[in-house]
Write a structure and sequence with these properties.
The protein is built from 4 helices and 18 strands. It starts with 7 loop residues before the first helix and ends with a strand. The strands form 5 sheets. Strands 3, 5, 6, 10, 11, 12, 13 and 14 form an 8-stranded mixed beta sheet that branches. A 4-stranded antiparallel beta sheet has the order 2-1-4-9, with no helix packed on it. It is 6% helix and 23% strand. It is mainly β and 352 residues long. It has 2 domains: 5-275, Coagulation Factor XIII, Chain A, domain 1 (Distorted Sandwich); 283-352, Endochitinase-like (Wheat Germ Agglutinin (Isolectin 2), domain 1, 2-Layer Sandwich).
Length: 352
């Protein structure tokens, strides 16, 4: 993504804080609104990339410094594709999304507010989308995020009432539970939904939660160790409320990790925005797809962290728990995104 001089200061702080990940930018129908614009954040704070581990902290609502409103609110039409970018460093230099070891689920929450400047904590939050772990492809949501250059997207439902909202993408990293609690990475975008119905927001009480408070330190969702060497008891069950599905809204199961410039399919069939909350079937290539084994270097070490390829670790994905295919971006998996175009045949199976 484009380097912003305003964000350059964050890079100068690299000596005082280790980068983990930060929510940096929103895109409306593929168009950047500008780094940091309409976000409750501050890229001059040295801990902005650090995780939140106190689940009762007000920072759980909109992240570190999230109590301070953004000066701008971005207009988004109902039915538009709203995308969020996560970066390793706010400046985008050095590049990256989040450390590859930080495996875990993701979700996107929303809260309608009288004013986008109001305190974000408390009741009224509901979930638009979630993705946990896909047992079929051995893939966590964070791995999908990294493979998609840090971009995750959601459709703002056409039936979502007009008004001002806080939109909150969330990453939960579960890789370090042997040494400490789950790590949350989140933030809030201030948006004004335009063109939606004029009536009140109608979300059932059981789909509404308070943040902080919607998840507890004792919940199974934050006590599932995602470290590759940990003993796991699947399925992984996501925490928080069920996803609220607005009636009459056409959603696409492919939109979350689709290319940034990919449009919301106009003819997509209604489907849940929730994906992989428990064990589900992964996307698979067409029946005519054929695996290619001929170019695989079988003398390479098998990836233990999901990385692969010439420009990354040099590991092979063949027999890896993450999947047998090495994507063009250097990540192991088994879906078409990993096994299709750009797949690195020397480091795993490719299908065409």
């Amino acid at each position: 993504m484009k380097f912003s001089p305003v964000l350059g200061l964050a890079a100068s702080l690299a000596g005082t804080a280790r980068a983990h990940g930060v929510f940096s930018t929103i895109f409306v129908d593929g168009k950047s609104q500008g780094d940091g614009k309409c976000l409750r954040t501050s890229f001059t704070v040295d801990k902005i990339t650090s995780p939140i581990t106190d689940l009762d902290s007000p920072e759980m609502a909109c992240g570190i410094v999230g109590q301070t409103p953004a000066p701008d609110t971005c207009g988004v039409r109902a039915g538009a594709k709203l995308s969020f970018e996560f970066r390793l460093w706010a400046s985008g230099s050095p590049p990256g999304t989040i450390d590859g070891s930080h495996l875990g689920p993701m979700a996107i929450y929303a809260k309608q507010v009288p004013s986008a400047a109001q305190d974000p904590t408390g009741a009224g939050w509901f979930k638009l989308w979630e993705y946990g772990y896909d047992e079929a492809s051995h893939t966590w949501a964070t791995e999908k995020l990294i493979a998609n250059d840090g971009i995750v997207s959601v459709q703002i439902p056409g039936a979502m009432p007009a008004g001002q909202y806080l939109i909150r993408p969330e990453i939960i990293a579960l890789h370090n539970l042997a040494a400490g609690p789950a790590q949350f990475y989140t933030g809030c975008a201030q948006i004004s939904v335009e063109g939606g119905p004029s009536g009140p927001l109608d979300v059932p009480a059981n789909h509404m939660v308070s943040i902080p408070g919607y998840i507890k330190a004792s919940d199974p969702a934050v006590n599932f160790n995602s470290h590759p060497d940990a003993v796991k008891h699947f399925p992984y069950i996501l925490g928080g409320p069920d996803v609220h599905e607005f009636p009459g809204t056409k959603e696409s199961a492919e939109i979350a990790f689709s290319p940034l410039d990919g449009a919301v399919p106009a003819d997509s069939a209604p489907a849940s925005t929730s994906a992989m909350a428990t064990s589900t079937a992964a996307s698979t290539p067409q029946a005519s797809s054929r695996p290619s084994y001929g170019g695989v270097n079988k003398g390479l070490a098998v990836s233990s962290d999901g990385t692969c390829g010439a420009s990354s670790s040099g590991f092979t994905c063949l027999t890896s728990v993450y999947g047998d295919c090495c994507s063009s971006k250097g990540w192991c998996g088994s879906s078409p995104a990993y096994c299709g175009e750009g797949c690195q045949a020397q480091f795993g199976i490719c299908k065409s």
